[in-house]
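Handoff note, outgoing to incoming analyst
You'll be picking up this chain. Sequence as last confirmed:
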Amino acid sequence: MRIAHIADSHVGFSAYRRSDPETGMNQREVDVYRAFEDLVDSILSKRPDVVLHSGDLFDSVRPSNRALSVVLEQLLRLSEAKIPVVLIAGNHSTPRLKETGSVFRLFEHIDGVHAFYTPGMHRLELGDLAIAAFPHQDKDSMVEALQNWKRGRSRYEVGMLHAGIQGLTRYSMGEANELNLPSSLLNLEVDYIALGHFHDREQITENAWYCGSLERLSFAEAGQDKGYLLVDLERGRKDFVKLPSRPMYSLGPFKAKGKEAAVLQDELVSALGSVPVEGSMVRLVVDDVPAALYRSLDLNALRAMADKAVHLELKFEIVQGTDAVQWRSTTFGSMDQEFQSYLSQVSVEGIDKEELRRRGLEYLEKEDGE
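Most recent structure output, in case you need it:
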């Protein structure tokens, strides 16, 4: 029995100002679409017995028509190949108001696709495999469902849920509507627990794993390989299947205290020159920067070095006087970039997220011109 464990595809995610030269769409949005398509290509070549997607299929509660179309097309490919798919809602795809409804209802008519998005535990049997699915829900409901989870009589049993691990901030994404649970609630009697929410690949208990996300969605993920886990329950093997993803580099932190502007400038120029910036996302982090030193740096020269990057972020810790510390981030897009970055990290209900992004940028552009 072989399982493809996937999570956090965040289809519909967009960030930064760079456009894809072929389509004219937001480059990061296109990257995420391609990552999902690459995933399905890989699954069709590996041919697991079942695909488990442990939450955050979409980046928002109300994905755009384009995001829906991409996911629908890929799910139909898996359906036609007779590979069952089990989906659970994550915090990004769970509306705060019940009246909003779930986008997962659109996929219920697809043969072989099983979508779970209401509170409680849902059981599904596929031959020798029993699946206990725990969609994102309020904490009390989730705790109760997990406490009542008892292994059945099937040859194999697995669980799937979307949450951080309580007490370990590393596994928290710091997002609205986030759920954090103690690891003691994870059932050690079952064969495997497919976790979602944390974007890196990691084992939590003897039988519980995060598989990570399909693309790098924040600089906290720089350096991480992206892909999914192929789990062989009979042999007890867990193989990571790496997928292509856009390069991301976080350089530093560099210490500025006590340095002259020319010395620090050379250090930052050298750092940018050490990585292939073209087509990449790059961040430079500099700590303890006196305000006078910051004003002496040639930031435009650094930006010019990365003009072919998808995104450059210059993050400085500015020291004002002797005590006060102020974090300051300098990016390509200034206010509009900050808006897009914020929008990419929050769930939006009641409006198309891409439409909100477009309107916001139009407003900021108008304000800029006045």
